[in-house]
Known about the structure:
Largest sheet: 8 strands, antiparallel, barrel
Helix content: under 10%
Number of helices: 1
Distance between the termini: 36 Å
Radius of gyration: 24 Å
Strand content: over 45%
Order of helices and strands: EEEEEEEEEEEEEEEHEEEEE
Amino acid sequence: MLWSGRRRGGKKQKTGGRQALMSIPLTGGLVSGDVRDDEGKPLAGAHVAIFDRSNKCVARSETDPYGFFAAALMPGAYRIRAEAGGYQSFHERTEIEWGTHSSIGSLTLIPDATLTVPTPGLYEIDPDHSAIRFVARHIAMSRVYGQFMEFVGQIYIGERFEDSQVEVLIDAASVFTNAEKRDAHLRSADFLDVTRFPKLHFSSHRFSRPGGNRWLIDGELTLHGMTSDVQLDATYLGMQEWNGMRAGCTATTELHREHFTVNWQQILARGVPVVGSTIQITLDIQGILKS
């Protein structure tokens, strides 16, 4: 069904003049609105796309922290689509007239029942269909991409989502960047020191849901013999049945090497570091429901 969700906020409002959320162009008009969840709370970062009569996308934006968006358009008829992770998309039509501001009010997104939370139970991470990747800066120019090839883990989804837990063990020596000399250096005492610290260990202590299919997972990461707080910003992707019932998610976080005393560094001319201090982590996870 093309039209889904609910519209709130009453009738379209049209105001003349040039005083609005942004300047109205001399040859067009302005449309604005806000995106909210089914409880009336603003949805920041919702994706808004506007299409003309030929179904060509003529404007894209993300809602601000208060859920608002605005776009300047040529006069004509348009279709507006609002989307946010974990919610059904919403479509609305509007007509833009020269020199006017058309406010379409609040667009309310309804939760997608397939992207709430997984079936409660214990999930074993499938290493053949999961990945733990990282990105580091090299001499402030290029990026170096790598991953850990060997890891095991379990995710427990509680009857109360807040009671959920995850634990992952990573083999430090399995680091791989597709460069043999660099990988050997990463395994050495300058970086991971895999002889003394063979494992990286992440254990969660808090799950929360800011909204939609977004999760925040707070926990502790032990790396290089040091433990530091880490927060994973995760996106739940739903469940599928394939060789067992599976749940999927992606997650990102940012690590600072100095928090784990991984302090090796060379400095080039003008103070440029060989290796950046910030490491971007990306996880793609499939968990198989075991019980």
